[in-house]
Amino acid sequence: MEATRTASFAERYGRRDFLKKSASAAVAAFGIARKAFAAERVNIGALYPTTGSFAQIGQGCVNAAKLAVQMINNDGGIKSLGGAKLNLIVSDVQSDTTVTRTETDRLISGYKLSAIHGCFASALTLIASEVAERAKMPLLTGSSSDLLNKGRHYTFTPFCRASQFALAQLQMSKLVSDTPKVAVIFENTAFGTSTSNGLREQAPNQGVEIVMFEPYSAGLTDASPLINKVKASGANMLFPVSYLNDLILIIRAIKQNGLEIAINGGSGGFVIPDFYKNVGGVAEGLLGVAHWNHDFDGDSQKVNEVYKNQYGEFLFEYAGGLVAQTFMIADALERAASADPQKVRDALSTLDVSSGYAAMGPGGRVKFGPDGKNIYAHPVGVQWQHADLASVFPKEDARAQLMKS
Amino acid sequence: MQGALTSRGLWVCALAAAALALPLLISSGFVIDIFIRILLFALIGVAWNLMGGYAKQLSLGHAAYFGLGAYTSTILLIRFGVSPWIGMLAGGAVAMLASLPIGALCFRLRGPYFAIATIAIAQGLMLLFLKFRDFAWGAEGTTIPNLGQAPLMMQFESKAPYYYILLALLAVGLAITWRIERSWMGYYLVAVGEDEDAAEAVGVDSLLIKRNIYLLSAFLTALAGTFYVQYIYFIDPNTAFSFNVSVEAALVSIVGGIGALWGPVIGAVLLEATSALLQSWLGGGHGGVQLSVYSLILITVILWRPSGLIGVLTDAYGRVVRATAAYAQKAPLDG
Amino acid sequence: MLTTIVQAVVNGLLIGGIYALVSIGVTLIFGVVKIVNFAQGEFVMIGMYISYFLAARFGVDPLISLFVSMPLLFVIGVLLQHFLIRRVLALGDMPQIFLTFALSLLLVNMALLLFTADYRTVQTPYSETAIHLGGLYVPIAKLIAFAVAMMLSGLLGVFLRITDLGKAMRAAAQSRDVAMLMGINPDRVFGIAVGVALALAGAAGSLLMPFYPVYPLVGQVFVLMAFVAVVLGTLGNVTGALLASLMMGVAESLGIQFVGADSGLIVVFAMLLLTLAIRPKGLFGGWSR
Fold it and tell me: Which positions in chain A touch C119 (Cβ < 8 Å)?
């Protein structure tokens, strides 16, 4: 019934549409009402999977998106547009590629948007970005797939790319051992494939030997066969590139099979509070990488506090990143002094911030190159310490000591 | 009989006219998108119905052909620059070729064995394509190059042309089904579907019939696959060989009317409309509500009208006809 | 190398036990009621949630919650048969299949509504421990699951062979009409069959909880393997499902080890299609139609 077992079934349940003739009239009328309303507000679209296999993270993202908009509105909105407030229009993309396609379309054609951000999972973001490109709507995303910067003029990626994650992971492996022998196991969808490719390409340069490089079908019933294979490979370090459900099984299987091995869990499901909740103390000391962390500077710590108070867990990588993205959109709106998406896009391409919430990511500065990449973006190495994520690598970004196990 | 035929013919013409005029009346791209989805599911359903409705071979793996069609045309497009119009036909051919060994393996299986085998095959294809990184982009999939307005390469900037293409494909599918219904093949199909052993006993070559109808079914499904890639600009194994597609194909026929010409169309309209209604009422964010209600509706239909809702419509139509006939009869007497 | 192979086989057998519990339930329902229950995985999920909440709220160890999940799911099974399945028995393959399909969809989404998509785990003292045997590691939680699964399968086998009710079920499975002529009440027998099958699913759920996270879609992860096992072992054949499940667990594990980490499923499918090519009714179903 499914190969990527959880994902495919999520697709089974992903279908969405509107009604026929009566609804079209309603939509038209609603559209008119909305457009009148929009004169006082600036619409921003947010596309996240709040149902389906990415639902946990998607929900956190939506929470953060709402928080960011609240922060901007409380601070007076977009001053150059007469204090216009931001209006967030959220859409659930159901962790499904087709739904992403339709929903992105629906948001863009149904509302007068100035920009959109989404979708967490690279596979989904690729589609949204394709639609946005053809509709000439600027899209910001923290998704790491390198494909997002190929031949696009409307997609902006303020944070590091999959290939950069890979490099960081390889460099971090030297922290643990002088002769790293790495086993790479990765889930066989877009996320796993692009990250692991980066690892394979750059390992020789970094003097890291990759002794095992295997894709696996996401949605494991049992991680023991995989771990058995890792054991047989003689690796002293494991880089799993996985989403949360598989990570839980992998970490547990490592313990169950008595495998003594250092782990760098990458990002994705590894750097969210739920990972710790489910794996518990075993997570202490485990290394990962992230494109954003909440201990970077005063601004990120402030946002983290607010988020923690409201939602009871720390502000995780993608969510924090998209708070920054919202501020980047606000900055572009200020400079463009217009809600027109084309003008916003142009303002984004000339964005250059090094302070405030828009710049609170590793590197502390955002400026986009011609391919939509932030030329200052780089990943930060993180470590689970005392049930929280601390930045430990590289030196400039370290905010805590590396815990030795 | 004569009267029924013309009135039926009139209905079809009216429907066709409405369908053709639709994009001219509706300006919202989003609403056209809904109709496109309705037509797409109807097309896939019509293709499935040939196998599942008439010959009663319950395939839950039609996504295999959907995906083969989609990948064939995309590979031809991106690697060799071939137009998707040709790619579509090539995809259909590939699907037909694939249906031969698949049929050979699966037709010996009966009932649920057949269904599960078809599921396994579609899934197996998905797994294979997840592995083929060099030729077919593997798990990451690929987007098709943005050519803007390029009719010869099946890309358009507005939605209406996509709508018309699907409408044409659906019309082809319906025409084929209609012709088969009335041909000797149709009779044999139904015979095989009802009782294969009995059909064999009277000399029907059931394997040949099944093979032929499978060829057709696979071909049409593959056409839908090509269209789909051209429409959503993206392909990856999960989307192309999605179990969802296989289920949809069967679902629209079951809900609408299995083994009936218009069944899949009615099913597609009803299911998509329900889906859209639920979406607009309940919205996103309450994960699970929409699909819970949707599945409850499905269960109700299955329990109440297992042969499909087309029965409800024909009954209602019949009642209207009888009422008007009765009225027409009464009138002269009343003078 | 030998250790690796043996470890792979052990891993496969252990998870095969879980596949067996799920697949036996499916094959039992098919054998007796002649319906393929596509929602079987969701009942495993329900069993898991029951165990999760008992553990989280009351600190009940999942293995003990077996005594709650199994009876509860038995009752659900009887009700399911009486109110839903009974109504589609006279209809063809397709409404039956789609009924259980729709049920599966309903259950997953209700779970999503009630419990959200969060992954939840239970930590027990034995969740991460294992027995060392030389270079071999046998995780205790999985060993227990395997042992209980085998025990339950054995009990079922005894039940079917020795008790009157069991024999009645087998009779109804062989021929419903003749069974009726013999005075067997098919409704009652079907109800029990579905009840037992769902109880087994519930057991699988409780046994999984110590080492597997629960979330609404979890049932679907296991149901695929279960279905392949059912077909491989011949629909309706309980022993067949058990043996096929174990075989598949081992094949998957060896496939991952020696073919490729993403090839476990491909190996299993290849096994399935090969078997069907030679024996269209599964390993125990004879040569021809």
Answer: 56, 244-245, 248, 274, 278
